[in-house]
Amino acid sequence: MIPYGKQSITTEDINAVTDVLQADLITQGPLVPEFEQSIADLCQAQYATAVSNATAALHIANLALEVGAGDIVWTTPISFVASANCALYCSATIDFVDIDINTANICPIQLQGKLAKAQRENQLPKVLVVVHMAGASCNMRAIAQLAKQYHFKVIEDASHAIGGKYLDQPIGSCQYSDITVFSFHPVKIITSGEGGMALTNNQQLDKKLKRLRSHGITADPAAMTQESHGPWYYEQVELGFNYRMTDIHAALGLSQLNRLTSFVQKRNDIAKRYDNAFNHTNVMPIKPESDCYSAYHLYLVRLPEMSLAEQKHLFEKLRGDKIFIQKHYIPIYLQPYYQQFNFDPADYPQAQAYYRSVITLPLYPELDIAQQDYIIDKILRL
User: What are the strands, taking DSSP E only, across 158-272?
Assistant: First the structure.
């Protein structure tokens, strides 16, 4: 079976992890801050906070921006459920902005229209969580202008996008957002086994993120409310969580980071071969805008719209051919849990059309030419 995604682990990665296992500190040691600093430097951001996974990063990002009961958070319906769940964890209300089917990202025109309507109804969002679908940035300049006009904060869910660029700047620089989140899950661009990171250029947000990932505890005298009892003293100053990353995970992440550029280049090379093969056919690749350099976490193609029965037949056929195509994603509002909120699918026609037509083809650095040609041949024979 050719999977849709796969991690690439080398002897160097294995050695990095085993070295930590033989060290004195395997949980909160020196490698977590080293990994944070390396990611911050790569992305040209001021601060980075490593956490146990990207969902945890999204959760504390919302909390750091003071999302709570009575607040509204918007995101895209075409994403993994964590992009919306993070708002519900904070007791906020969630809503969705339709996508541009050509990019699979939030449509700035739809966003602008929804914001104007929400302003008239006094229902503006406190935070917008944008998702850089498949590794290609949203139109962040337009989104940042709307954020300034309508006074909402922006979280970039860049779980797919480390190593990508927008307007020649690294995704994660937070030039157009308050916080950017990365994922290091095994099928992502680089992996730490499990792990995530929240980047920001705001020192106060960074301090808040770091407290929230560690039970809300501080040992900083300036942040304490009482006089220290002694050198052992610490205070819990807010309700936080145990979302910390270990040095074991950071060691793998740091080792993988050495190959980030080559990983992303290889992914782009594979995507280009797909693009060329599908040129002038009824298979339409979902492509990044010209101002983006995609990290190509996923390779998405749009086929003629199909019923669910037709899609099921397609999946069974291709998986029978040992090609593990996938669907990224089911619109979040269709999930049984979200149906209690009474979203109307007709409000998101582009997301609906996307779900009826878009599939994910295998893409990972170790996908070889023979495997890719086999996939292309099977797709063109559909």
Answer: 165-166, 169-170, 179-183, 196-200, 217-218, 235-236
